[in-house]
Design brief:
single chain; binds fe (ii) ion
Length: 202
């Protein structure tokens, strides 16, 4: 599709957020693979169900952001994650327990979508991309909540100590925490990519 058919982007200019869309698509597609691999080996039917639901969303996000890039007249640049194979091997290893994969509940993290929200507020995105971003963020938050609950079940089944500690941690940023814990290191790298994009655009 030629660039001039893209919806309400600047006239013929390359969208400033193309790299962001690319980073999200790559990270989400990778997360879908990781979570599905984990679902295939977990002994917990409940966790597997949640992982598959979120994995399906992640794959969908990867595809839809790829489509949006195409709608804007560009092509997704696939960037293999250099640590992806190790991450996948770990999550696909049935000898590593779910508890180890989940890890301890950490301190609350900052809202991982704050930067995207700011850019929406700044009017940086075209209207279709804004719509996409809002849908994406809503699903991500719901996915994170589902994962958080599934993780808590795993912790509870594994003993009360971690559960008690989790309760004392507070839940101010549970969504972000769950994303960071489970949406793989891919999302952390997405955050770094966002930082680079922001700096590059200034
Ligand atoms: Fe995601």
């Amino acid at each position: 599709m030629p660039a001039d058919t893209a919806t309400t982007t600047a006239m013929g200019t390359k969208p400033s957020y193309l790299g962001l869309l690319n980073a999200i698509s790559n990270a989400e597609s990778a997360a879908g693979v990781y979570l599905e691999a984990w679902a295939d080996v977990t002994p917990s039917a409940d966790l597997a169900c949640t992982l598959r639901l979120v994995a399906a969303r992640e794959r969908s996000h990867g595809e839809v952001f790829c489509r949006r890039i195409a709608e804007l007249g560009y092509s997704l640049r696939k960037k293999p994650d250099p640590r992806g194979s190790a991450q996948l091997a770990r999550l696909a290893d049935p000898a590593i327990s779910d508890l180890e994969k989940i890890g301890p509940r950490g301190e609350g993290a900052a809202d991982p979508f704050a930067e995207i929200r700011r850019r929406i507020s700044d009017g940086e995105f075209d209207v279709m991309t804004v719509n996409l971003m809002n849908w994406y963020i809503t699903e991500e938050k719901d996915s994170a909540q589902r994962l958080r609950e599934a993780y808590d079940c795993v912790r509870e089944m594994s003993g009360g100590k971690r559960k008690a500690q989790a309760s004392s941690d507070g839940g101010a940023s549970a969504d972000a925490e769950a994303i960071m814990a489970c949406m793989t290191a891919g999302f952390a790298r997405l955050e770094k990519s966002l930082d680079k994009l922001v700096k590059a655009s200034k």
